[in-house]
Amino acid sequence: MADRGDTHYRVGSLNQWFALGSLLLLVSAFWMVIDDWNRPWKGYQREFKAMEVARAEAQLAAPAAEAVRSDEARLGAELERARQDLVAKKTVLEEAEKELRDKKGNAFKATEAEKKVKQVLNWERFQIEEERLHAGDQTLKAEELKHIETTLFARAGEKQEADAAVAAQERRIAELKADVTRAETALKNAGKSIELVRKKLDTLAPADAPTKIANVLRDFPGLDFIGPSLKVEKVLPPKLTFELNFTQKQRIDMCQTCHVAMDREGYEEAEHPFQTHPRLDLFLTAKSPHPLSEFGCTICHRGNGEALDFQRTDHRPSDAAEAADWHDERHWHKQHYWDYPMLPEKYVEASCVQCHKSSMDLIAAEAPRVFEGFALFERYGCYACHKVDWFPTQRRPGPSLARVGQKTSQEFIESWIAHPKAFRPTTWMPQIFHLENYAPEVTVAHSQYGTGREMKGDEWSDAAIAAVSAFVRSRASAEPLPEIPVTGDAVRGREVFRLVGCLACHNTAPYGAEEREAETDPAGKLRATNQHGPNLRGVASKVRPEWLYAWIKDPAAYWSETRMPNLRLSDQDAADIVAYVFEDELFRDVPAGWSADKVSYQRDVLEEQARWFFNRELRSELERRFQGEWKDDQALLEALGEKWVLGQGCHSCHSIPGLEDAQPIGTELTTWASKTVDKLDFGFMHEILGEEQGWSHHQVLEFKEYRENFLEQKLRAPRSYDRRKIKNPSERLKMPWFNFTEHEIEALTCFVAGLVNDEVQRARMLPSSEELAMDTGKRVIRQKNCAGCHQIEPGQVEFTDEDGARHAVHGQFLVFDEDVLPPPMDRFADYVAKYEADVGELEEVILRLLEPEPGLGNVGDTVVIEDLGGLRVTPPHGGEFVDLVTDHYLYSDDVEDVDGERRPYSEEVYEKVRWTFAPPVLWDEGGKLQRDWFYQFLLDPAPLREQIRVRMPTFSWGAGEAGAVADYFASRSNREWPARYARRLLLAEQKTPAELAQEIERLVGAKTLAKRLPAASIQGIVDGKPVETATGLEALLAYGRHVGFAMAGRVDPRYEAVGERLPSLVDAVLRADPDYFQKVHALVTDTTGKGPNCVQCHFLRDAPPTQSTPVAWAPDLDHARERLRPEWLREWLTDPSRVYPGTSMPANFPADQSQWQELLPAPSAAQIEAVLTWLLNLDRAVRD
Amino acid sequence: MNDALKAAVDWIFEPTRYFLGSVLLLAAVFTFRRFVSRPAVVVAFFALSTAFFVWALGDPDFKKIVTKGDNIPIVILLASVVYFSWLSLRQAVINDERRKKGELGLEHELGKQKVFTWPDLVYTEFICIILFTALLTVWSIVVEAPLEEPAALARTPNPSKAPWYFLGLQEMLVYFDPWIAGVVLPGFIIVGLCAIPYLDTNPKGNGYYTFEERKFAWIFFWVGFVLFWVLFVILGTFLRGPNWSFFGPFEYWDVHKLEPLVNVDLSTYVWVYWLKGNLPANPLVREAPGILALIFFFVAIPPLLGKTVLKGMVQSMGMVRYNVFMHLMLWFALLPLKMLLRWTVNLKYIVGIPEWFFNV
Fold this sequence. Notes:
The structure holds 2 protein chains of 2 kinds. Chain A is mainly alpha-helical. Helices cover 49% and strands 4% of the residues of chain A. Chain A has 49 helices and 15 strands. The model of chain A has no long low-confidence stretch (mean pLDDT 89). Chain B contains 16 helices and 2 strands. Chain B has helices at residues 2-12, 15-31, 33-36, 39-57, 60-66, 72-100, 106-109, 117-142, 167-172, 178-199, 215-239, 266-274, 283-286, 288-307, 311-317, 319-345; strands spanning 352-353, 358-359. The longest helix of chain B is centred in the N-terminal third of the chain and has 29 residues, at 72-100. The two termini of chain B are 45 Å apart.
């Protein structure tokens, strides 16, 4: 536009402005398009695509692919040859095909003709039926009907003929073409593996130009809104919601947009965000229990699932170093506006809690840290002060104080309350007084309402301790305990102490770590299970002898909720133990600096405390009381003591008469982790920590953004949030100090960080009744410390065999050096180090298999492992007490037996002692025992092995606990059965999983089996993966039936009837042979060498065995019918060493050799059945 | 040094000092307007402000609050209000000087009575639209949308802030009950704005800037808009933090910060403190001092002023317009009065009858 000259602005310059503006707009528009096109997640997707292409290309270039290619070339040539051959037969083939066409034509005609006749017949039949009905004559038109039927039969015959001719001709042609077809199939199969890769590569990076161009256009800036290949990936997990405004909002997780490969195998080593998620068998994949489509990401990881950039998702660094890196590289900082930041890597297990509340014990192996937190929460009794509404126990974790005066002295009580860890460093009792917010130099209050002298923390705490002690003692019964009825023998007491089972739960470990290293007595060694009860060192300086006697005789009488079981000790045994404890120096040993003294306190401090505690009372009234009813210190102490006890929460852990219904003092934690961080009072701790550690301002503030930081600090130093605060006595923090290790702090934090509002629907969280029983059973087993005495699960060894194959198998190491105990599985690395220092390089270890392992051998077979570098040992669960027992027998001059005689056992074989005198293993206890017997036994244990000195304790069970333990073992055996079946089958067939998979594939082709089963799934069943078991077991069982393999059936975890005891069955047996039981009885009890001489070792209906040395004794045969499952018994009789390797029980009925024909002429298998029936019907078979 | 300076700034920005300081500053600007309207002054002002800003950005708390996505426009507002206010003042000063010398005003220099819609209006508007669109596009690319936490009824954000343009109203809630601060006073603002053409019939200053001829209008506008509206927006945006507590520009927004708020009603002052007695039971008797004060304020002040100081105004406006004008002014004056009373003598309510939900 030209300048007219009469305008206010010059048009020329306006034009220039317009041009400039347009240019800027254009540039900004382009910038916008590019900015959108270049969003970070698209970059990741492009990068990943390139990775995938490179990978596919590498796969195609790999030697395996080369081999396939050369195979293909060879097979291609073969195919060509076959085609050539076919060409030679061209005329014959053409002729045959022509014939086929004709025959097909005939068949078509015949089919049509038959169809037509059929229709006519049906119509005619209907007509005739109608006519007959109306006429009332059932013979009408009979001839016509017959004629039509005859025609139909004729047509049908013709059709059949024609079809058969077609089929025959088709077979003829197929035979002609057979070579070509075979070659084609071979070619197709050969390339199968790389064909997929090729196809993938084709989609990722197509070779043809039009597709290439199209792909570029799809993702071109500005066009990529139409149908781009780079897309935001969303998961909408059904019914997983987010609480918002009292409404539930659907969760949407877009994490996969950047974390492209998280559910794909093969990217385990890749950098983030391309890394594969760990444990795909548990997470993300469709087969896993947590498929991506149903769970998404944020329900476990937290963070903002709908965000698409690094910052807004609220990513969380694992540690300070990573935080600094992110800060520098990505300008990362806490996303202030998101209340539920991602959990750091170390706490990610916290999320398990929200669904697995009722299966925490079951997930222990998969989520060890949060489970440990859960177990610590239970052990330290956190729930007693901090309510968690679903927590499975309400038991008070500390001993009852109802009769504390009988147990110990005032001096001990006061010193103990002041510094429990000074007497017993490992105690769970926390320190309550003399903590930092009552430190010696801290002024707590001024006497006389702020006007009098300053009172320091120490005086304050001492007065409080005196008050608590006075109160607790005043509430406790003062009734004295009776004298010990018999005189104890300390020497015998030591043996009883060691053999009866005390050390399965208790230890007497020295105080310092270094001293512990040097400790030689097994009783002083710390093991996984002997820390279940308190360390007993110094206990004689704590308790009174009469109390100890009464306590070990019947712990529940003193404290009804105690975990300490009743060992049914005789008066003499108990008195001997007491004598030993009070005579041995070990039990008087206390840490340096400990002495039990009464605490000294100031009267004016007591009065001041009363002024604070009774501040609702009138002041003048209080002052009057000081001169009146509280003039005596004792009365004032008791009155104050109650306030202190209620204020510090002593009653939450200890039962104190009169305070049974008082409220616990801690914050409820049921949904603690859903509380927003601004509700947590960090006090000045973030600033103090910042100063101490030189944090930046930024770090100081960030500390307050994460609730886990609050927890960690709270657990580390519970009163630290009072630092630099000015508080009066009633406002100070109360949580006591537990002296948690950093490891324990992390575990507890992990657990508490998982206590959130339920965001997952209830139905998803309810475990099946079997899972619930297993979880309860497992928990009870943990609480009762069954693993203290029993090996619940054998150790596992992972190693590489001579052929380079990797095995992971249950097993135990064997003695390979004379006079040396086998290498311990739980401290194998230490053993190797010590061996190398003392003897020389360890070259090999001998492993005995405790389960069949395909390719290695059956149960009881031994394997020599030479590749010690690749050896991984998972220690067995429990049974460490066994070592103590065997040590005692093998290294003592003589040991007292149950008959009162002392015998030497040092010449005995280790295994004999182990199986005879030590508590039994519980590997497949559910498969072995009848559930009802087991349950009754747990309630009221009766001795099974008469010679054993360890006592199966009488526990005080809670409701349903004993049943849960029995159910647990039954369910476990039931669950483990498929893996055992698969291993046995592979072993029996001498096949690897791959070979078996091929065989099954062949049989599916041959229609013998209905289902395919890939090698990986077979391996999964062998490894006991529940998912593989659920999907593949049927096919495996079908194969087993096909090859005639049989193994005793699975355990029904509910009640099972013993079929062998059915009266009808017994009647049938006796009808066939009235002397049947007499014959078997003669066989079993024969002592002349004509039978297996069972009664040599076994008791029989209380009759002692003929062999008089207790080491050879075996259980009463009369127990078997109510105790053992027939399936287990059958296996046991067949080959005992396959059940318990090393057992003294011989294989009396070897399959390859028939014995005892004189007394019971039958093959071994029939003899076993006979003995089995006899055993299970012993009450009927043998009449007195 | 740095810390001392920051502490000094924080001290200055305490609301009483901030408000009274701004009043003084405004008075100074008007008094020394000839000096202030020099370009060198505004250049120096902006240079110093920029220097301060750059220095202050080194402080993480300051940086956090001024660079928050939705606060950036307020920073720009701050600069543009200063600049345009200064520009108008400068033009007014120049015009006043010229008039004093008998010359024509600046607007006459253009020599035009009329300009063309096209291109002078439409074309320039169009260019502005284009430039502004480009600016907004770039803005939306560079500055992230200030998204906050998902809204939850049971858990409102702390601080809960009104949109920036209403922060002045929100500030009033500190001093008045919601029905006054949120209903009556905004209502009077609207009524007052509507009434301007009927109250102010003075034709002077139409089409040109002048200070001398319209002193009252100038002062009233600057106090009403710049002081009470813009400065309250700034106060609300930058200086009010969690729990609506006051925070200096360099102070961390600590949720746990405490402020003593022991405010006392006028009735307590009168009956308890001065007369040393108890509060009367009858609310009307109890609140009589406050009620009388209010009656005096609204009923007695207009005639008193009309008879004395504002005699000229009554004459020029007539009784009706004078009274309407005075009442609007009195309502407006209630705000600074109540603020001053709160700051100086911790006065809670002049009339406080919670029994009837009537508190002034």
